[in-house]
Amino acid sequence: LLFLYKRKIIIQRWDRVNKEFVLDKETTLAHTPKAMSWFDRSIIAGFNLQYLIIDADSPSIKEIFSMNAKQTHLIVVYISSEEVLLSRENITTFHDTTTGKLTRSYEIVWSEQPTSIALYYPYLVGVTTKGIEIRMVHNGSLVQNIDLKHPQLIIAKPHSIPSYIETIAANNNNNN
């Protein structure tokens, strides 16, 4: 388990003998993250002016990128154990969870800054003040706009990405 308490990241593990969670690691940060997700042994955290990779096993912290102005909505979306989607202004980009390097050659450009993004494979669903935007994960193309006044949050039921890819591959092989 990972908890954020003020500026501290607290990782706890299950102690099978005592049947309770116990402290595994604690890291104090310079600032409080506004968005965060855990990927294997690295933590991606979004702060007012930057996104960082925090190594869960060591005090190593690496900047992914910085931003020119304070962001109102920082978004970290789990794509896979190797890939994360990070948002700044109206642009989201895909990054490696250990190096922070870009993993895809394209950006997802929304009509305005999303307040929330969910992965509903093969789609990215973004909440903006104008409504919901649905875009393809693979190229960022717009699939649909749903007009709503000030939607607040989106939660998508997780899809099994490998099984979806296997289904597409099977269908493509059957069509040949």
Topology:
Blueprint: E1 2-5, E2 8-15, E3 20-28, E4 35-39, E5 42-46, E6 50-55, E7 61-66, E8 75-80, E9 83-88, E10 91-96, E11 108-109, E12 116-120, E13 123-128, E14 131-136, E15 142-147, H1 161-174
Antiparallel strand pairs: 1-2, 2-3, 4-5, 5-6, 6-7, 8-9, 9-10, 10-11, 12-13, 13-14, 14-15
Query: Number of helical segments?
Result: 1
Order of helices and strands: EEEEEEEEEEEEEEEH
Taking all Cα atoms into account, the compactness measure Rg is 18 Å
The biggest sheet amounts to: 4 strands, antiparallel
Strands, count: 15
Share of residues in strands:
over 45%
Order of adjacent strands in the largest pleated sheet: 4-5-6-7
Distance between the termini: 46 Å
Average pLDDT, all residues: 85
Structural classification: mainly beta
Shape: globular
- Tell me the helix content: under 10%
Low-confidence region ranges: 162-176
Main attributes?
176 residues, mainly beta, four-stranded antiparallel beta sheet
Task: State the gist of this model.
The chain has 176 residues and is mainly beta.
Can you describe what's shown?
The chain has 176 residues and is mostly beta strands. It has one helix at residues 161-174; strands at 2-5, 8-15, 20-28, 35-39, 42-46, 50-55, 61-66, 75-80, 83-88, 91-96, 108-109, 116-120, 123-128, 131-136, 142-147. A four-stranded antiparallel sheet has the order 4-5-6-7, with no helix packed on it. It is globular.
